Amino acid sequence: MTKSELRKKYKALRKSLSLDQIDDFSLAIANRLLQLDIWDKSFYHIFLSIEEQKEVNTEYILNILAGKDKNIVISKSNFEDASMTHFLLTDNTTIRKNDYNIPEPVDGIEINSTQMEVVFVPLLAFDKTGNRVGYGKGFYDRFLSECKPETIKIGLSFFEAEEEIFETSEKDIKLDYCVTPNRVIQF
Is Chaperone given among the entry's keywords (predicted)? Predict the structure, then answer.
């Protein structure tokens, strides 16, 4: 399927999920993450869920990271140039939703992309070789290209892999893992 077809399909599938299903699937994803050998790192980048888009609820993962006393990094989006600025999440961080309902830090301690060791990546769909489809603005591909090559990229998905995503380009950054409620896939 093409990226636009996949976006349409998975937005509709997400829309059909109940709040209880989202909660159950999100908890299952967080529990599956505990199976990965990633917990010896220091800097973890995570997205804050857009409830209106029925994204994976990352609150469970945030609790794991906080319980393990990790440096949690969240981003603020610049829609003029599709870039992201990254901030350390602290007790003093003020979070506000932007015009697209994305929860973002107002300001804080800025963290460079090269410091990220693990990045939890939002997505709409992914395929069996680690390609992903997001909302189409390129924020994460741009951000991931700034990270060190050894940065671990983990997609989070309610749904299983598509056979193949067509229209991929050299700018698309592949995932190392994708975690669903039922399994961990390594690419």
Answer: no
Which tokens sit at 60? 């469970």
CB atoms within 10 A of CB 132: 26
Residue 141 three-state SS:
helix
Are residues 45 and 75 in contact, defined by beta-carbon separation less than 8 angstroms? yes
How far, CA to CA in Å, does 89 sit from each of 83, 105, 169?
Answer: 19, 8, 33
pTM: 0.94
- Maximum distance among all alpha carbons in the chain? 44
**Both tokens of residue 62?**
């945030």
Q: What is the token pair recorded at 162?
A: 């598509």
Q: What is the pLDDT of residue 59?
A: 97
CA angle, corner 129, sides to 120 and 155, nearest 5? Answer: 10
How far apart are alpha carbons 18 and 46 in whole angstroms? 23
Give residue-wise pLDDT tens across range 53-97: 999 999 999 999 999 999 999 999 999 988 999 999 999 999 999
3-state SS class at 95: strand
> DSSP strand E in 46-146: where?
71-78, 83-88, 95-97, 103-105, 110-111, 118-121, 125-126, 132-133
**Which residue numbers in the chain have pLDDT < 50?**
none
